[in-house]
Amino acid sequence: MALAILGIFASDWFASEYDPKVMVRKVTQAFTPPPPPPKPISQPTKQNQPTIDLNAAGKGPAIDLTKLTIKQPLNPMLSPPNFDHSPTDLNLDLAIDWQAFGLGELDSVPVLLTQIKAIFPRSLARKGIKKAKVALDVFIDEQGNITLINIKEMPYEALLDSIYKIIRTSRFSVPTKNGQPVRARFIWPVEFKKS
User: Are 132 and 188 within 8 A, CB to CB?
Assistant: First the structure.
């Protein structure tokens, strides 16, 4: 029991010796001012359109009308239409006339008047192909317009779109024979190069 009493006194003495000191400081707080009140939302003002009152007292102005007289008698019975019931010739030749002069028969060789703007296909460039040559069977009319008749030589299918673009955008000088404008047909070699 003496030990128990001695333990109580020892714990009281240690508690008083090792009492932690707490320092309390005064903290001053600053408050921010309240936000300003929201601005009132302005309602769009309606502009009143002036109204025009078209209802006026009276009958209004007088209108003079002219009577129209038709001198032709009206014939409600029309004559029946005449139809040609003769048989139609279905064996007509609808082929295009490609008759034209060759380059050797002309006064001079037709000159290309437009610059060729053809894009080399990327698919060929990716395969390592840097150039390709095609042979086009073309027809030039009396105004210098060009028409593709046939593709004689085309090593790659990817060139087809570029060929059609060249045909659409190209124009030649007017081919002549004995000083007169004529049609010409020849094989036009075109070389595509990757730029």
Answer: no
Q: Where are the domains of the chain?
A: 103-193
Instruction: Give the pTM.
Output: 0.49
Residues 34-52 have pLDDT tens digits of 888 888 777 666 666 666 6
Q: Phi and psi for 83 in degrees, rounded to 5?
A: -110, 140
Looking from the CA of 35 toward its CB, the CA atoms found within 13 Å total 3
Task: Give dist(CA 165, CA 75) in Å, integer.
Answer: 60
Q: Contact, 75 vs 160, CB < 8 A? A: no
CATH code of domain 103-193:
3.30.2420.10
Lowest mean pLDDT among 91-100, 105-114, 142-151, 160-169: 91-100
DSSP string, 128-175: T--EEEEEEEEEE-TTSBEEEEEEEE-S-GGGHHHHHHHHHH-BBPPP
